[in-house]
């Protein structure tokens, strides 16, 4: 009997804003993944790339300003760079953790392209904030280029920042390679940052100025490999909502109908909890005997046993 398959989506808390912090945080993710391997799952990993993609985009933009011979890197290129950078740290941390447990299992990162629709309404209503804070003058230049900007004030600072589209994933071009590696008993890291968003043009592919929501790509990936389980790992034990009395409530086991009702009632944060619940639903309803769990990265083993976490099935 073959092992069950699981797609694990790692949130931004598994990484970090600096190189040393990321190398520290991926060790927690590696322990969670190794626990799932010991639970006899074939594991495929996808992951967030925020704020890394913004850091890369900012660095490449600054480089172009310092040396006029170089141009600003398109978002698709920055996404590809983030896949390699994060994949490198992840696969080495996971390999080390597995070997420390006496498990030999190759770990491979695939630079993954994901098709999006050029007519997706997300291109007209961007939501993903990236990059550094800009002055009003810099923001005006970005708008003159045709880019979108937004003004925000947060604990990190205030000013103008660029916002880009977050279209829905339609297809994953490297899916056959991913399946082949799973069949070869490899642990696969794929579609990092939601995948590199690309548009089909004749026989070629062109990068899109976008960042795909990684939870939706995780659901698409899990469906395409016919996984048994989708696990979205975050910094919280449960997805939480606020009830009519203003109290915070943990969402535990949900049916498809209950999850749909929460979405219809607008109980979920549009940019935070909604993508996780919607992605879980997308995966569960697309096949038979599937389940999805959303929980804390440090409690993955309990989550896969459905002892903790927001569970949809």
Briefly say what this structure is:
This protein has one domain: Carbamate kinase (3-Layer(aba) Sandwich), CATH 3.40.1160.
Q: How much strand?
A: 25-35%
Shape assignment: globular
Series of secondary-structure elements, N-terminal to C-terminal: EHEHHEEEHEEEHEEEHEEEEHHEHE
**How large is the radius of gyration?**
19 Å
Cα-to-Cα separation, first versus last residue: 23 Å
What is the level-2 CATH architecture name? 3-Layer(aba) Sandwich
Quaternary structure of the protein: single chain
Assign a percent range to the helix content. 25-40%
Enumerate the spans where pLDDT stays under 50 for 5 or more consecutive residues: none
Keywords:
313 residues, alpha/beta, Carbamate kinase, 27% strand
Tell me what the structure shows:
With 313 residues, the protein is α/β, with parallel strands linked by helices. The protein has one domain: 3-Layer(aba) Sandwich (Carbamate kinase), CATH 3.40.1160. The chain has helices at residues 19-38, 52-66, 75-100, 136-144, 175-183, 214-224, 256-264, 273-285, 300-304, and strands at residues 4-10, 41-47, 107-110, 113-115, 128-134, 148-154, 157-164, 171-172, 187-190, 196-201, 204-207, 229-234, 239-242, 248-251, 253-254, 291-296, 310-312. The longest helix has 26 residues, at 75-100. The model has no long low-confidence stretch (mean pLDDT 92).
């Amino acid at each position: 009997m073959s092992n069950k398959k699981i797609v694990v989506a790692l949130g931004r808390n598994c990484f970090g804003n600096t190189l040393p912090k990321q190398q520290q945080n991926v060790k927690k993710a590696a322990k969670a993944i190794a626990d799932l391997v010991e639970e006899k799952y074939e594991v495929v990993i996808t992951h967030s790339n925020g704020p890394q993609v913004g850091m890369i985009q900012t660095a490449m933009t600054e480089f172009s300003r310092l040396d006029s011979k170089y141009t600003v890197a398109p978002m698709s290129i920055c996404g590809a760079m983030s896949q390699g950078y994060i994949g490198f740290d992840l696969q080495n941390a996971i390999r080390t953790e597995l070997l420390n447990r006496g498990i030999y299992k190759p770990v491979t990162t695939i630079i993954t392209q994901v098709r999006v629709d050029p007519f997706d309404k997300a291109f007209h209503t961007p939501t993903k904030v990236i990059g550094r804070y800009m002055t009003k003058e810099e923001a005006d230049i970005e708008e003159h280029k045709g880019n979108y900007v937004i003004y925000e004030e947060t604990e990190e600072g205030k000013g103008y920042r660029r916002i880009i589209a977050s279209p829905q994933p339609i297809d994953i071009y490297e899916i056959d390679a991913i399946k082949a590696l799973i069949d070869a008993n490899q642990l696969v890291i794929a579609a990092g940052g939601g995948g590199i968003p690309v548009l089909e043009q004749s026989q070629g592919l062109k990068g899109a100025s976008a960042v795909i929501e990684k939870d939706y790509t995780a659901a698409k990936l899990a469906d395409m490999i016919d996984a048994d389980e989708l696990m979205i790992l975050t910094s919280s034990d449960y997805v939480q909502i606020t009830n009519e009395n203003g109290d915070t409530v943990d969402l535990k086991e949900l049916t498809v109908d209950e999850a749909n009702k929460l979405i219809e009632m607008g109980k979920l944060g549009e940019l935070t909890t909604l993508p996780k619940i919607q992605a879980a639903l997308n995966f569960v309803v697309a096949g038979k005997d599937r389940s999805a769990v959303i929980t804390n990265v440090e409690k993955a083993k309990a989550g896969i046993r459905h002892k903790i976490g927001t569970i949809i099935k």
